[in-house]
């Protein structure tokens, strides 16, 4: 799953939203039956997950337009079961009529003989009836024009199910049968002559603001269909019988109307000369042998189930057909487990950080189990392989995340987790591959087809070839063979295809026993049990959520979690706490279980049998209502849910939850013991005894309870830290079991539900534990997350095995989004030691001083002995001595430890300009990073003592000049000051960087800064990092900062432009004789006075007037500032520099905006594109500009919010453009365009949406010096807002 540009919108208020209203083919179709509930109002849009072609859709497949040949059958043959008599054509395998034997009611079949279409072409068939045993009739089809080609077909009936099947296919080398179509081969039909005749059709549609369901009556005035219409589910009925159809149809190469499983079935309304309208339904294409495949597929089949009233409501309609469909429908593997998977969560590892190693996840599973009294869990491990999420796809097996514990710890998690009612899945990708993957090759991928580009550039897999070669199956078989069977589920990410590629993929996974979940609810629908975007209301937007079909949900509500919220049914949701999309709130995660998931799962234990507007009836005596906006549920005649409060029966116990708290009364027939649920397990509260058949429960607001008839079973012992070598490493137990403590030490739980050890300020406080099971003579690292209260200094020492490291202050913010501690000052502190024996004491001591110290996530792991140089070969989590800086904030980094896989990761392959790995097997790679500080050292990872000099050295390659700087800085007084920024030149072969650093002024650090946001191709690789002590320094560093800030990045020639310098004194004494100077290029005028004295912590700010010559060429120029001052008689200096541009020349004649240089450009996603639509984050990665099917060769591609400024100097009179949302956004996106001249709006478009035609925008610019082209998000978020300016043109002269 991807994270950009995705609208992480506020939680959508769908809890009270009804299933979207169906589109009625006839306004009177539903008269007297269940009216659909209102549709939700659309709010946020989202990025399309699909590659949408531009231009009009392709035409309907001509093969399905081949009308069947009318054929009367004088002497039908019949087959029969105890329930049905089925009349057949002896001259072709087709159904003529169904008769329900108990009632005599009938349904129609086919009125004509279809063409037989093989490989897309019709072929004349000779048909012979080869047998009829009364239950099955068999036929043989031969083809005079295709010698040696034959089909064996049959139609059989069992119970109420009739099955059409192609039993055998004979072909030749000269003609291999690939696909089979039987256009107009009606397997069932209803006609206007049958009372109550009606149809119900739907497709796969994840847009929660509408429905794909189409319900219609069949009457004499029903308009015939000019061409067949596709459907994914199909049901027909009369007032006496209903029928549903299922098929293993799959299209070899679906496109247009056959894509998206939209033509699994075809249906068509036809009117005969007598005026009778008949609607017939037949199967879509079957693929017997896919193009390029050496093997054949399952024999083609289609089934029709016929039923009278199936739900006991004394009415026959589509719902009876839906009930009957469950007996013939293709069912996803594991569907019966869905109802028990109450808690789904995503432990997330990313960019080499291993923030959620496997054994920590085991502790989280145990904590959830204790807190829910053992409710079922499904933990989907994102980042189980290689360096974490989106690394080394598609290495499903054989390349496990060693920083998270590797295969051994993964299997410990899987095996132990089973005892805590947890099943596990892993996130996999069968669409893209990364060059570091062991399975990456030029045979696997199309090296010219690029995919996701975050940590590395991915390439699209040849999915058909991957299937036909058997390599996909072999990779999954490796994962299956290496892991415990409790790894049962695959989260198949970013999977887009439909048809044979999708269905064959599912067949391979099913054969190995894998259950399937997906990113999007409409993908892999036959097997998907859960869809991420449907369940995560904060991810994406309302136009790509759950399947919007009432028909599908009626059938499969208990089998899947792919639904939108509904006022009676609700829906299961995922609220994360393990780092996915930076979510870290365990409290919100826990609340979601009780408010949404457990109620939804209670209903999923029962199948829907009758669905009305304000009431749904289920099997097992359960019904739910929604009247006057209040939801109530009943089970066995007793109310079990009232609004948001409930007492739900669940597998021998009851769960009680009252979000508002207080007393509630419920029906009960026995005494029950009440327990309050906590993350330590059940806590007894008391016993309730029925009085008059009722009990009264008193609840704390938002606190869950569980009730048992009698005494509850004994709580299991969690054994925190199982397999990790540390007892309770995450302080999950309230009693600090396994730890010896002295001083003020306790376990603290904050508002987010995070548990840490708190070493309170004041007296010395200590945690210690004896680590056992070590191998004498081996090297180990012990580590812990530590935070000294920000703003305080309190020496805190971590020691083990005779080695120690001390942290005095926490000054570096944690920016790792996948870490629950992001935006705090927790950082990992580690000590490496050689085990003297089989046990050592791990000790964490906070000295006696003010300020709390917090500790969490203690780990110990074996490693190779470290050297003086950091080579990044260790399996420790993180980036060696570096931690993430502020580039991008607490968002997923674009830096990770890159692994060698020659030749694909090295310079020269497919245009790569630099090596991903410089030395050994691993290097630290920053890939097209965001602007800001990418990474930096900490005082305990690279020590720079005051008064001593050091040499910092590393090997590097840098793909582009002017993209990265090496930074020296220090932390002091709550501020982080950068004292030196050294530009790193372009180097496409390995070079060595060295720089002298003097300690002082505060906690000194070094790091890497990115100058350009997500610059395409800007890769920086670092290896062999070292810090060498050079001894006492003779020079003292300047403790201060000098900032240089131009008011505008573009300077107007001949005019005074403002530039501000700010000197901040961070010395311990006053800075005297302060003198700031500003140097500009020769010929430029500079005016300003920057002199004075500055007290400690004070600032001297100077505004300068900088005037370039009137004839200064349009170019980039350097401004350099310097400050000199004295402290205690010692002279010190600081410098700063900045680059500015002069204004581009104004247009001299009419010009396209894309041919002009702009003054500035801001864009909501990636760069503004010239003569292309907005693409991804790189330059020139967009497609053609297409609006409403119209292509523009010239123009600008932007993404809202966007603003592009041009300098006109009064030379232009008019601006013209054709604006709109680019067609790459097929159904999503909403933008408003404007033209602003010298701060005054001159033109504005209405809100334009995807598929709208281009809107001509014209603005009068007479006299304007500047013009801004503005695109905003129309107030509903900027997901999918690709805003095109077609033929954007300035009229000048």
Automatic annotation (TrEMBL):
Q: Where is this region: Disordered?
A: 25-67
Q: Entry's Pfam families?
A: Gal_mutarotas_3, GalBD_like, GH101_dom-5, Glyco_hyd_101C, Glyco_hydro_101, NPCBM, NPCBM_assoc
Source organism per entry reads Nonomuraea polychroma
Q: Where is the signal peptide?
A: 1-20
Q: Which GO terms describe its molecular function?
A: carbohydrate binding; endo-alpha-N-acetylgalactosaminidase activity
Q: Keyword Transmembrane on this protein?
A: no
**Ranges where the Glycosyl hydrolase family 98 putative carbohydrate-binding module domain occurs:** 1147-1292
From the Swiss-Prot or TrEMBL record, give the protein name.
Answer: Endo-alpha-N-acetylgalactosaminidase
> Which SMART domains has this protein been placed in?
NPCBM
Q: What is the lineage of its organism?
A: Bacteria, Bacillati, Actinomycetota, Actinomycetes, Streptosporangiales
Q: Which UniProt keywords apply?
A: Signal
Which InterPro entries does the entry link to? A-galactase_NEW3, Beta_sandwich_GH101, Endoa_GalNAc, Gal_mutarotas_3, Galactose-bd-like_sf, GH-type_carb-bd, GH101_dom-5, GH101_dom-6
What GO biological process term is on the record, naming one?
carbohydrate metabolic process
């Amino acid at each position: 799953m991807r994270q950009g540009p995705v609208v992480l919108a506020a939680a959508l208020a769908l809890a009270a939203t009804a299933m979207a209203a169906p589109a009625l083919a006839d306004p009177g179709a539903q008269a007297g039956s269940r009216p659909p509930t209102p549709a939700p109002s659309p709010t946020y849009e989202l990025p399309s997950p699909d590659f949408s072609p531009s231009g009009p859709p392709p035409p309907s497949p001509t093969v399905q337009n081949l009308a069947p040949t009318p054929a009367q059958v004088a002497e039908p043959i019949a087959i029969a079961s105890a329930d049905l008599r089925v009349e057949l054509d002896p001259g072709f395998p087709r159904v003529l009529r169904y008769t329900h034997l108990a009632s005599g009611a009938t349904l129609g079949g086919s009125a004509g003989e279809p063409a037989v279409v093989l490989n897309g072409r019709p072929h004349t068939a000779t048909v012979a009836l080869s047998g009829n045993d009364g239950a099955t009739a068999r036929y043989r089809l031969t083809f005079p024009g295709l010698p040696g080609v034959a089909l064996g077909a049959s139609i059989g009936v069992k119970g109420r199910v009739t099955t059409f099947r192609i039993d055998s296919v004979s072909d030749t080398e000269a003609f291999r049968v690939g696909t089979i179509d039987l256009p107009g081969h009606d397997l069932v039909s209803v006609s206007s002559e049958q009372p109550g005749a009606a149809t119900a059709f739907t497709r796969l549609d994840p847009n929660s603001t509408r429905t794909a369901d189409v319900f219609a009556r069949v009457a004499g005035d029903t308009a015939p269909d000019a061409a067949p219409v596709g459907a994914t589910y199909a049901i027909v009925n009369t007032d006496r019988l209903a029928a549903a159809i299922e098929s293993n149809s799959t299209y070899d190469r679906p496109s247009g109307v056959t894509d998206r499983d939209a033509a699994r079935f075809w249906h068509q309304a036809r009117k005969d000369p007598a005026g009778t309208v008949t609607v017939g339904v037949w199967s879509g294409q079957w693929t017997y042998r896919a193009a390029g495949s050496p093997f054949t597929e399952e024999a083609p089949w289609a089934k029709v189930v016929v039923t009278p009233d199936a739900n006991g409501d004394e009415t026959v309609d589509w719902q009876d057909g839906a009930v009957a469909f469950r007996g013939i429908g293709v069912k996803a593997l594991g569907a019966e487990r869905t109802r028990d998977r109450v808690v789904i969560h995503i432990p997330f590892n990313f960019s080499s950080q291993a923030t959620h190693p496997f054994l920590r996840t085991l502790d989280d599973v145990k904590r959830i189990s204790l807190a829910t009294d053992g409710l079922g869990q499904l933990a989907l491990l994102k980042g189980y392989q290689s360096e974490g999420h989106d690394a080394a796809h598609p290495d499903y097996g054989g390349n496990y995340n060693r920083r998270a514990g590797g295969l051994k710890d993964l299997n410990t998690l899987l095996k132990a987790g089973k005892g805590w009612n947890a099943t596990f899945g892993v996130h996999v990708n069968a669409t893209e591959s990364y060059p570091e993957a062991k399975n990456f090759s030029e045979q696997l991928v199309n090296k010219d087809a690029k995919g996701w580009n975050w940590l590395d550039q991915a390439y699209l897999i040849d999915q058909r070839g991957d299937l036909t070669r058997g390599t996909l199956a072999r990779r999954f078989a490796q994962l299956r063979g290496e892991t415990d069977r409790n790894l049962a589920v695959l989260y198949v990410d970013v999977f887009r295809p439909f048809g044979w590629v999708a269905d064959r993929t599912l067949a391979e996974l099913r054969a190995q026993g894998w259950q399937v979940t997906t990113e999007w609810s409409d993908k892999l629908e036959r097997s998907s049990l859960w869809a991420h975007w449907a369940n995560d209301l904060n991810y994406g937007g309302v136009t790509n959520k759950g399947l919007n079909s009432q028909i599908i949900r009626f059938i499969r509500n208990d089998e899947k979690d792919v639904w939108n919220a509904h006022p009676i049914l609700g829906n299961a949701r995922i609220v994360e706490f393990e780092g996915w999309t930076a979510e870290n709130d365990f409290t919100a995660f826990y609340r979601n279980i009780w408010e949404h998931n457990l109620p939804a799962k209670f209903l999923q234990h029962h199948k829907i049998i009758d669905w009305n507007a304000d009431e749904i009836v289920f099997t097992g005596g359960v019904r739910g209502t929604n009247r006057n906006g209040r939801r109530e549920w009943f089970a066995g005649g007793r109310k079990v849910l009232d609004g948001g409060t409930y007492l739900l029966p669940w597998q021998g116990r009851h769960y009680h939850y009252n979000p508002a708290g207080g007393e509630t009364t419920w029906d009960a027939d026995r005494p029950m013991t009440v327990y309050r649920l906590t993350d330590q397990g059940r806590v007894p509260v008391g016993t309730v005894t029925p009085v008059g058949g009722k009990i009264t429960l008193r609840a704390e607001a938002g606190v869950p309870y569980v009730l048992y008839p009698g005494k509850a079973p004994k709580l299991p012992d969690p054994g925190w830290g199982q397999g990790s070598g540390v007892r309770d490493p995450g302080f999950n137990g309230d009693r600090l079991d396994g730890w010896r403590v002295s001083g003020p030490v306790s376990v603290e739980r904050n508002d987010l539900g995070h548990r840490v050890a708190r070493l309170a300020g004041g007296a010395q406080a200590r945690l210690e534990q004896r680590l056992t099971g070590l191998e004498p003579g081996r090297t180990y690292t012990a580590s812990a997350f530590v935070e000294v209260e920000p703003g305080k200094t309190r020496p805190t020492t971590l020691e083990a095995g005779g080695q120690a490291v001390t942290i005095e202050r926490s000054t570096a913010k944690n920016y790792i989004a996948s870490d629950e501690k992001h935006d705090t000052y927790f950082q990992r502190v580690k000590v490496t030691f050689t085990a003297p024996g089989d046990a050592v004491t791990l000790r964490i001591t906070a000295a006696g001083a003010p300020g709390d110290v917090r500790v969490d996530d203690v780990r110990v792991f074996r490693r190779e002995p470290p050297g003086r140089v950091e080579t990044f070969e260790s399996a420790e989590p993180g980036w060696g001595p570096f931690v993430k800086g502020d580039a991008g904030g607490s968002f997923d980094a674009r830096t990770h430890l890159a692994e060698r896989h020659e030749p694909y990761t090295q310079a020269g392959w497919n245009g790569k300009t630099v090596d991903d790995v410089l030395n050994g097997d691993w290097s630290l790679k920053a890939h097209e990073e965001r602007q800001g500080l990418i990474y930096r050292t900490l005082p305990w990872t690279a020590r720079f003592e005051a008064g001593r000099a050091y040499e910092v050295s590393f090997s590097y390659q840098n793909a582009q000049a002017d993209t990265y700087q090496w930074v020296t800085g220090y932390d002091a007084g709550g501020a982080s000051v950068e004292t030196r920024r050294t530009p790193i030149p372009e180097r496409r072969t390995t070079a060595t960087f060295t720089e002298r650093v003097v300690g002082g002024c505060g906690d000194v650090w070094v790091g890497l800064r990115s100058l350009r946001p997500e610059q395409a191709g800007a890769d920086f690789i670092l290896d062999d990092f070292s810090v060498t002590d050079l001894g006492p320094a003779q020079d003292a560093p300047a403790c201060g900062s000098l900032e240089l800030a131009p008011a505008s990045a573009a300077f107007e020639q001949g005019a005074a432009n403002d530039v501000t310098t700010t000197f901040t004194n961070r010395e311990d004494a006053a800075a005297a004789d302060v003198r700031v100077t500003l140097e500009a290029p020769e010929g430029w005028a500079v005016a300003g006075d920057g002199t004075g004295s500055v007290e400690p912590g004070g600032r001297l700010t100077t505004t300068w007037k900088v005037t370039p010559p009137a004839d200064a060429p349009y170019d980039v120029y350097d401004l350099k500032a310097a400050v000199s001052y004295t402290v205690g008689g010692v002279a010190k200096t600081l410098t700063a520099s900045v680059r500015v541009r002069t204004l581009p020349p104004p247009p001299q004649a009419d010009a396209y905006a894309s041919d002009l240089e702009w003054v500035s450009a801001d864009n909501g996603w990636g760069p503004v594109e010239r003569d292309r639509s907005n693409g991804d984050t790189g330059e020139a990665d967009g497609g053609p500009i297409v609006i409403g099917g119209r292509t523009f060769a010239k123009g600008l591609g932007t993404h809202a919010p966007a603003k592009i400024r041009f300098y006109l100097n009064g030379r232009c009179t008019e601006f013209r453009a054709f604006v709109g949302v680019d067609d790459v956004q097929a159904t999503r996106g909403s933008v408003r365009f404007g033209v602003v001249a010298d701060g005054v709006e001159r033109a504005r478009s209405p809100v334009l949406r995807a598929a709208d035609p281009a809107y001509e925008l014209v603005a009068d610019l007479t006299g304007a010096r500047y013009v801004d082209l503005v695109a905003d998000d129309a107030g509903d978020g900027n997901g999918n807002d690709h805003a095109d300016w077609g033929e954007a043109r300035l009229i000048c002269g």
